[in-house]
C-alpha cells in the first residue's frame, strides 16, 4: 500500500482549503465549520474525531457538495468542485450532472444506515447502479459480487427491517462501493453498533483500504475506532481543527486538551485515573513524590525505563496503572506512576525520561 | 320477507331501484363523483404535495417563491367551506364542463375541494420519509426524478396509501353535499328524499349504504398500506 502511494501522484486525493460553512438562521449565524484546511492522500484512512456538534459531518459533506460551503476551495482528484469567497452556490465549479457523476465515485455510509426500507438488500445495492454503464446482467453480477464481499449473499431478497444493525451497515457499504469509488466517507458508521459489530465493520473498512487502496474518511466520536484503522487523525471542536497528525503522533504526543481527553477515554485511562486519584496514595502524596503519566512509543520501549530510574537517579516508581496499545504496528504504552526520590534525583530522572522520548505529564506533586 | 321489508321501509321501496331517483342511480352517482374527483383532485393534490416537499427549505430543490405559491394556494382553498365553494366555483364549472348542475358539474368543486386536503396529507406523508435516505440517494448521484419517484414515492408508498384512504373517505362525505347542486348521490337521497320528506327509513338506508362504501374503502386501504410497508 505504501509503495503504491509513493508511485501515485503526490497531490492529495481530497484537498479542502480554508473551508467555512455558515448557516443563517432567522437572527442567528451559526458557523458550523471555520477555516478548515485538510489534505487527504490516496490510500489514507483519515480519522476526524470530535464530539457531536463539532462540525465533522458538515465538513465531510462539503467533499461531495451535499453541503455547499460558504467560503473556501474543494478539490477532489485534482478537480475543483468549489471555489469561492462568500459565493454560496455560485462558487460551485461543476455542472449538476457532472456533480452527480462524481458523487458516484465518492461512497458514503451513515450512522443510521439510510437504506431504502421498501427495497430488498439487492435492490438497495442496485439503486446505486442506475447510471452505471454496465448492462443489466452485468449489474446483477456486480450486485452479487458486492453482497459476497460484505458476506450477505443469503440475505439478497430480504428487506432492511429483517436485518441486524451490522448487516444493515454492510448493505450500506455494498451500496457505497457499487460504482467502484476511490473515496469512502464514513459518517459515524459504527456509532449505532455494539462493540463487537463495530470491530467487524472496522475490520471490513480496513480490508477495503488495504485491498482496493480505498481512501477512507472516518468520522467518529470514538477514538477507539480511529485507533483501530486510521493512519491520520484530525481532532475537531467548534467547527475548527484543533490538531492534526499521524495516529501515532496524536496518541503519543497529544497537544490539545480535547485530544488528551479523547485518548484517555479510548485507552480507559479516564476510569483508571478517576479511581486512582481518589486513592490514599494520591490524596496523601508526600513532598518527595510526584504522580505522573508516562507515555512512550516504539523506539523507547526497548529501554528498561523503570530500572534506569532507580539505578541512576534512585527514583522509585510505583506503577498504579499500565496499558500498551498497538497503533499502526507500533507499541504505545502509558503508565500512571508515583515517583519518589530526592528533589534533585526526581528532576534529573524526569529529564532523562524526556530525553528518551517519553512524554511526561505531572498530574500531581511539586513539579506540577 | 319482502312483505316485511316493504312494510318497514315503505319509502325505500317507493324510491325504486333504477329510475332517476332510484337507489342504483344514487349509488352510481356517488361512486362516479368519488372516483373521478379522486382522480383529478388526487393528481392535483399529489402535485401540490410533492411540490411543497421538494421546494421546502429542507427539500431537494429549495425554492422560496414556488413554495410560497404552493403553500398559499393550498391554504386558501382549504379555508373555503365546501358548500360555499360549490356555489362560488359555479362559473368556472360552467366553463370547464359546460353545465353548473349534475354529477359531472360536481366534479369540479369536488376536485378543488379535496385537493388541498390531500396535498397537506401528502406533504405530511412525504415529510416522514427519512431525510437520511434522501441524502443517501443524493450521495449515490441519484437525479431529481429518481429521488421523487424512486425514493419519496416508493418509501412513502404505504403512508401515501393510508392518507389516500382518509382522503377518499372524506371525499365520499363531500359528495353528499354535492346534492345541493343537483348532483344526486346517496347524500342527496338521504336529505332530499329522506329528511325533507320525513322519510326516516330512506335516510337510514342511504346512511347505511354510505357506511358500507366507507367501510370497503377503509378495509382495502388498510390492507394495501400494510402490504406495502416493510419498515
From TrEMBL, chain A:
Name of the protein described by the UniProt record: ATPase component (AbcC)
Record flagged with keyword Membrane: yes
Domain (ABC transporter): residue spans on this chain: 16-263
Alphabetically ordered keywords of this record: Amino-acid transport, ATP-binding, Cell membrane, Membrane, Nucleotide-binding, Translocase, Transport
Coiled-coil intervals: none
Gene3D superfamilies on file: 3.30.70.260, P-loop containing nucleotide triphosphate hydrolases
A Pfam family recorded for this sequence: ABC_tran
Presence of the UniProt keyword Transmembrane in the record: no
Native organism taxonomy: Bacteria, Bacillati, Bacillota, Bacilli, Lactobacillales
Organism: Fructobacillus cardui
SMART domains with a match to the protein in the record: AAA, NIL
SUPFAM superfamilies: ACT-like (SSF55021), P-loop containing nucleoside triphosphate hydrolases (SSF52540)
TrEMBL record, chain B:
Pfam families (UniProt xref): BPD_transp_1 (PF00528)
InterPro entries: AA_ABC_Transporter_Permease, MetI-like, MetI-like_sf
Gene3D superfamilies given in the database record: MetI-like
Residues passing through the membrane, by range: 31-53, 65-90, 96-118, 163-184, 204-225
CDD domains according to UniProt: TM_PBP2
Keywords: Cell membrane, Membrane, Transmembrane, Transmembrane helix, Transport
Statement: the UniProt record of this protein carries the keyword Transit peptide: no
Annotated compartments: Cell membrane
Top-level taxon in the UniProt lineage: Bacteria
Ranges of residues in domain ABC transmembrane type-1: 27-221
Entry membrane topology: Multi-pass membrane protein
Family: Belongs to the binding-protein-dependent transport system permease family.
Protein name: Permease component (MetP)
Organism this protein belongs to: Fructobacillus tropaeoli
Amino acid at each position: 500500500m505504501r509503495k503504491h502511494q509513493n508511485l501515485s501522484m503526490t497531490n492529495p486525493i481530497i484537498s479542502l482549503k480554508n473551508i467555512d460553512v455558515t448557516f443563517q438562521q432567522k437572527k442567528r449565524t451559526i458557523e458550523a465549520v471555520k477555516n478548515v484546511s485538510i489534505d487527504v492522500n490516496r490510500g489514507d484512512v483519515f480519522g476526524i474525531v470530535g464530539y457531536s456538534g463539532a462540525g465533522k459531518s458538515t465538513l465531510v459533506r462539503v467533499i461531495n457538495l451535499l453541503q455547499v460551503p460558504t467560503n473556501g476551495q474543494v478539490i477532489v482528484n485534482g478537480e475543483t468542485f468549489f471555489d469561492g469567497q462568500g459565493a454560496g452556490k455560485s462558487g460551485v465549479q461543476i455542472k449538476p450532472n457532472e456533480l452527480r457523476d462524481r458523487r458516484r465515485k465518492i461512497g458514503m455510509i451513515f450512522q443510521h444506515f439510510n437504506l431504502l426500507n421498501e427495497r430488498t438488500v439487492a435492490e438497495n445495492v442496485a439503486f446505486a447502479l442506475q447510471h452505471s454503464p454496465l448492462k443489466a446482467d452485468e449489474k446483477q453480477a456486480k450486485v452479487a459480487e458486492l453482497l459476497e464481499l460484505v458476506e450477505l449473499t443469503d440475505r439478497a431478497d430480504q428487506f432492511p427491517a429483517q436485518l441486524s444493525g451490522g448487516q444493515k451497515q454492510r448493505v450500506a457499504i455494498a451500496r457505497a462501493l457499487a460504482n467502484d469509488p476511490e473515496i469512502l466517507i464514513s459518517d459515524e458508521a459504527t456509532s449505532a453498533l455494539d462493540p463487537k459489530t463495530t470491530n467487524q465493520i472496522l475490520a471490513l473498512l480496513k480490508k477495503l483500504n488495504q485491498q482496493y487502496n480505498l481512501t477512507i474518511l472516518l468520522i467518529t466520536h470514538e477514538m477507539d475506532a480511529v485507533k483501530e484503522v486510521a493512519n491520520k487523525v484530525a481532532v475537531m471542536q467548534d467547527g475548527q481543527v484543533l490538531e492534526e497528525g499521524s495516529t501515532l503522533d496524536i496518541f503519543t504526543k497529544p497537544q490539545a486538551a480535547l485530544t488528551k481527553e479523547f485518548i484517555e477515554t479510548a485507552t480507559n485511562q479516564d476510569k483508571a485515573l478517576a479511581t486512582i486519584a481518589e486513592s490514599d496514595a494520591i490524596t496523601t502524596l508526600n513532598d518527595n513524590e510526584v504522580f505522573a503519566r508516562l507515555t512512550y512509543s516504539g523506539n523507547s520501549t526497548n529501554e528498561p525505563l523503570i530500572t534506569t530510574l532507580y539505578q541512576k537517579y534512585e527514583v522509585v516508581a510505583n506503577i498504579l496503572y499500565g496499558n500498551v496499545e498497538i497503533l499502526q504496528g507500533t507499541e504505545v504504552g502509558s503508565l500512571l506512576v508515583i515517583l519518589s526520590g530526592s528533589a534533585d534525583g526526581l528532576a534529573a530522572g524526569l529529564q532523562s525520561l524526556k530525553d528518551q522520548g517519553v512524554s511526561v505529564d505531572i498530574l500531581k506533586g511539586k513539579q506540577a | 320477507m319482502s312483505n316485511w321489508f316493504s312494510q318497514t321501509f315503505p319509502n325505500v321501496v317507493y324510491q325504486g331501484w333504477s329510475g332517476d331517483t332510484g337507489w342504483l342511480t344514487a349509488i352510481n352517482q356517488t361512486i362516479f363523483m368519488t372516483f373521478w374527483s379522486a382522480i383529478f383532485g388526487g393528481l392535483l393534490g399529489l402535485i401540490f404535495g410533492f411540490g411543497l416537499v421538494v421546494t421546502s427549505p429542507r427539500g431537494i430543490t429549495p425554492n422560496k417563491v414556488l413554495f410560497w405559491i404552493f403553500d398559499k394556494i393550498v391554504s386558501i382553498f382549504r379555508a373555503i367551506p365546501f358548500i360555499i365553494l360549490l356555489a362560488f366555483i359555479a362559473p368556472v364549472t360552467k366553463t370547464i364542463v359546460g353545465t353548473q348542475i349534475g354529477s359531472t358539474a360536481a366534479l369540479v368543486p369536488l376536485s378543488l375541494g379535496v385537493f388541498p386536503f390531500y396535498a397537506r396529507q401528502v406533504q405530511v406523508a412525504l415529510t416522514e420519509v427519512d431525510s437520511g435516505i434522501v441524502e443517501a440517494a443524493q450521495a449515490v448521484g441519484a437525479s431529481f426524478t429518481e429521488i421523487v419517484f424512486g425514493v419519496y414515492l416508493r418509501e412513502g408508498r404505504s403512508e401515501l396509501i393510508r392518507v389516500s384512504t382518509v382522503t377518499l373517505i372524506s371525499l365520499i362525505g363531500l359528495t353528499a353535499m354535492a346534492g345541493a347542486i343537483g348532483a344526486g348521490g346517496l347524500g342527496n337521497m338521504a336529505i332530499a328524499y329522506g329528511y325533507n320528506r320525513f322519510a326516516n327509513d330512506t335516510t337510514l338506508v342511504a346512511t347505511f349504504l354510505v357506511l358500507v362504501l366507507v367501510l370497503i374503502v377503509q378495509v382495502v386501504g388498510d390492507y394495501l398500506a400494510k402490504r406495502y410497508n416493510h419498515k
